[in-house]
Write a structure and sequence with these properties.
Blueprint (H helix, E strand, L loop, with lengths): L14 H13 L7 H16 L2 H11 L7
Helix pairs in contact: 1-2, 1-3
Length: about 70
C-alpha cells in the first residue's frame, strides 16, 4: 500500500469538481421559473452524463491520477 499525502483541498485531483463544472456550464444561460424546474433540469443533465463514458473518462484523466491497482 502506498500513501500519498494530498493538500487539504485539491480541486484538480477531484473528478467530481469537473462534473459540477460541466453541469454549471450547461445551465449557465438558462432561466427557470421555479426551483423544481431547475432541479429537474439538473437531474436530467446529470443522468445524460452517466451515459457518456467518454466524458467521465476525460474528467478522470484531467486529474492526472491513476485509478488502476498496482
Amino acid at each position: 500500500m502506498t500513501v500519498c499525502q494530498l493538500p487539504p483541498y485539491a480541486a484538480e485531483f477531484n473528478p467530481v469538481e469537473g462534473v459540477w463544472s460541466h453541469l454549471k456550464r450547461s445551465l449557465a444561460n438558462l432561466t427557470k421559473h421555479s426551483l423544481d424546474q431547475l432541479t429537474a433540469l439538473a437531474k436530467t443533465r446529470l443522468k445524460r452524463m452517466q451515459y457518456r463514458p467518454s466524458l467521465i473518462d476525460c474528467l478522470i484523466a484531467k486529474t492526472g491520477l491513476d485509478f488502476q491497482p498496482p
